């Protein structure tokens, strides 16, 4: 096995994903707007407490974002196989491991899955995160979960604070930074526009990230990965589709039986009532 095609090792490798670039700009914009315009609006000692909480969250956010983006969750067997250093070890892996990746053309761990975006097998594959442009697997899942929780906390803090302070600024027509009465109307409205854009971005991010955190709590309780959840959802959809097809076939059969009945003039024809009832039940359950 020797493949010379592109293989991603971490999220900082090019090509970058458009969502990844968007997240960088959005994060810089929101945090700058919050730091420059919102934090100074608070009075002492509130400003000290808020600043300490915000700096801790921001530090954790940058640290975890770097760790998740820079981590390499590649299946170690594929790395070893590429080096081809120890033929005995490789032979052992070939015999022991039941799974074989036809794209990497080597044995892999049972929990590994080939990611087409990264062109590599990821051990304990959960999903490929476009926001950090990296695979999330067993090796970086804990950091990823901690990262999204911190992202959620910092966005809740910024959303609530921007909404509260922004409303007060509009109502009082005053701001510590621009000072409506001092600097004039134009700069004040420009500042308000920047704050409103940050509020929209932070609100959308809070909704999205909260849903994501709850989803990961849910799958963690169930003891499954995102990939396994998607697979089970797809299987359920297929099952529902099969049941739907089955019920439609039964309905068609019933129609043709009714026609035969009328055509032949049989009054005590044993119509399959049960199957008609089943059809209704199946149809209802499939649409839920
Ligand atoms: Zn592979
Ligand atoms: Zn990937």
UniProtKB/TrEMBL annotation:
The DHHC domain is required for palmitoyltransferase activity. It comes from Stentor coeruleus. The chain crosses the membrane at residues 21-40, 46-66, 144-171, 193-219. PROSITE patterns: DHHC (PS50216), PROKAR_LIPOPROTEIN (PS51257). Residues 95-230 form the Palmitoyltransferase DHHC domain. One of its GO terms (molecular function) is protein-cysteine S-palmitoyltransferase activity. This is Palmitoyltransferase. The lineage of its organism: Eukaryota, Sar, Alveolata, Ciliophora, Postciliodesmatophora. It is an enzyme of class 2 (transferase). GO terms for biological process: protein targeting to membrane.
């Amino acid at each position: 096995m020797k493949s010379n095609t592109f293989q991603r090792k971490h999220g900082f490798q090019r090509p970058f994903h458009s969502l990844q670039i968007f997240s960088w700009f959005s994060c810089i914009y929101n945090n700058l707007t919050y730091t420059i315009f919102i934090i100074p609006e608070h009075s002492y000692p509130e400003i000290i407490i808020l600043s300490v909480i915000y700096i801790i969250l921001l530090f954790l956010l940058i640290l975890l974002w770097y760790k998740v983006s820079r981590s390499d969750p590649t299946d170690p067997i594929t790395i070893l196989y590429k080096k081809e250093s120890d033929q005995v070890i490789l032979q052992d892996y070939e015999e022991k491991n039941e799974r074989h990746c036809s794209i990497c053309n080597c044995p892999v761990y049972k929990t590994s899955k080939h990611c087409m975006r990264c062109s590599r097998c990821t051990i304990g594959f959960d999903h490929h995160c476009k926001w950090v442009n990296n695979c999330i697997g067993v090796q970086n899942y804990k950091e990823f979960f901690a990262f999204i929780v911190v992202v959620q906390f910092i966005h809740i803090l910024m959303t609530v604070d921007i909404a509260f302070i922004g409303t007060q600024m509009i109502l009082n027509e005053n701001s510590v930074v621009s000072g409506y009465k001092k600097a004039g109307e134009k700069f004040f409205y420009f500042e308000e526009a920047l704050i409103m854009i940050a509020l929209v971005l932070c609100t959308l991010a809070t909704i999205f990230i909260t849903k994501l955190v709850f989803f990961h709590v849910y799958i963690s309780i169930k003891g499954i990965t995102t990939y396994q959840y998607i697979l089970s959802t797809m299987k359920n959809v297929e099952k529902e589709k099969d049941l739907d097809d089955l019920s439609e076939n039964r309905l068609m059969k019933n129609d043709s039986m009714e026609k035969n009945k009328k055509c032949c003039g049989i009054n005590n024809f044993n119509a399959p009532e049960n199957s008609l009832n089943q059809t209704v039940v199946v149809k209802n359950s499939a649409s839920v």
